[in-house]
Write a structure and sequence with these properties.
359 residues; alpha+beta; 2 domains; 5-stranded mixed sheet; 5-stranded antiparallel sheet; 27% helix
Length: 359
């Protein structure tokens, strides 16, 4: 389990960190009104085809240094940049060390093939084939170690309780599946996302599926809050899905307010200790119109500007080696506060954001 609560407070946005921002998305709203607001602002009307989604995930979202890691077991495969990424890690016809795509919310339980939910990347993970098969369409649950049928770690499968590093193993029984500790929060936030965005479709397909695991997912979301890597990942996905991130990643209070009252009561706060400290400045600030100048000590891959709901308003690529950037901010819709973040998706780095005031 990640030992430090690093979940986003959503002093809002990708970085929701500033004291000047509200702590929660749609603060003061609850029940169906909160649900309606989240869906209206974060449900995407743009998804890739399933084939495109898998290739994009394996090449551009999850791969680090051309290496892909199984979400459940930690097994890693090299992704040859000259090959189709999905095929590059599936070379043994689904053998023990092959990697395929896991639907955290199973197709048969609501992420139906041919619908947007099927290829919505916010709940698709790379997984080793035997682990994906074992999970199937089971609910997520905490499994007593002495009742576990199968254990999965790296490229290993065992029927015996591990002697060490037990938190790194995923567990399976016929009734349910338990991911390794470091993936539990990621799984919970993905399930919350699908249930929220595609609720009618889910309830018409498998009306009890979400409720059967809701309390478990609430505990996992609280115990394993979002990290910088998960935050960057959701915004990486967003650029292919109408610039809509998973709101349960950018606001650590959202699952508590929507689904977990009476189950968990965890105070979440900003993961500033995990963000990359880098010397950079922007001026003029406050600004009314014209150019915003950003100067940094190193070159980043791009700059993003987000509003108070975490919606991306500007995604500006930076030329390699460029350390001074000029942005025209006249497109910003109104006076108010925005967050500016320097971002490097290749190295999974993000600076501590700065608040931009337009007046």
């Amino acid at each position: 389990m990640r030992g430090v609560i690093t979940s986003l407070l959503l002093a809002i946005s990708i970085a929701g960190f500033s004291q000047e921002f509200d702590n929660n998305l749609f603060s003061g709203t609850s029940g169906e009104a909160l649900y309606d607001s989240i869906v209206a602002n974060y449900k995407t009307d743009t998804v890739l085809t399933y084939s495109q989604a898998r290739d994009t995930l394996f090449r551009n979202i999850y791969a680090k240094n051309d290496t892909l890691e199984c979400m459940y077991s930690g097994w890693k495969r090299y992704v040859d940049p000259d090959l189709d990424p999905t095929q590059a890690v599936f070379t043994d016809n689904g053998g023990n060390e092959d990697i395929n795509t896991e639907h955290v919310f199973p197709r048969s339980m609501g992420a139906l093939e041919g619908t947007a939910a099927h290829s919505d990347m916010h709940h698709l993970f790379p997984t080793r084939v035997p682990v994906n098969t074992a999970r199937g369409n089971n609910i997520f649950m905490d499994i007593p170690d002495n009742q576990t049928d199968s254990w999965f770690y790296l490229n290993q499968t065992s029927s015996n309780v591990p002697n060490n590093n037990i938190e790194r193993w995923s567990e399976d029984i016929s009734e349910g599946f338990e991911p390794r500790e470091e993936s539990k929060g990621d799984v919970a936030r993905a399930v919350f996302y699908v249930y929220t965005m595609y609720r009618d479709q889910v309830l018409n397909t498998a009306p009890q599926f979400f409720e059967q695991q809701r309390e478990t997912l609430c505990r996992w979301a609280a115990d394993d809050p979002a990290t910088q890597e998960e935050l960057i990942r959701t915004y990486g996905i967003a650029q292919y899905q109408g610039d809509n991130p998973n709101p349960f990643v950018i606001d650590c209070s959202l699952s508590q307010r929507m689904y977990c009252e009476g189950v968990t009561n965890v105070e979440c706060f900003t993961p500033t200790s995990e963000l990359t400290e880098s010397t950079w400045t922007m001026y003029p600030n406050p600004i009314s119109q014209g150019e915003l100048i950003i100067e940094a000590e190193k070159s980043w891959s791009h700059i993003i500007i987000v509003d108070m709901l975490g919606q991306v308003l500007e995604r500006h690529p930076i030329t390699n080696g460029e350390t001074t950037v000029r942005l025209n901010i006249n497109y910003l819709p109104m006076a108010g506060n925005y967050q500016v973040i320097l971002y490097d998706s290749n190295n999974y780095l993000q600076t501590t954001p700065k608040t931009l005031v337009r007046h």
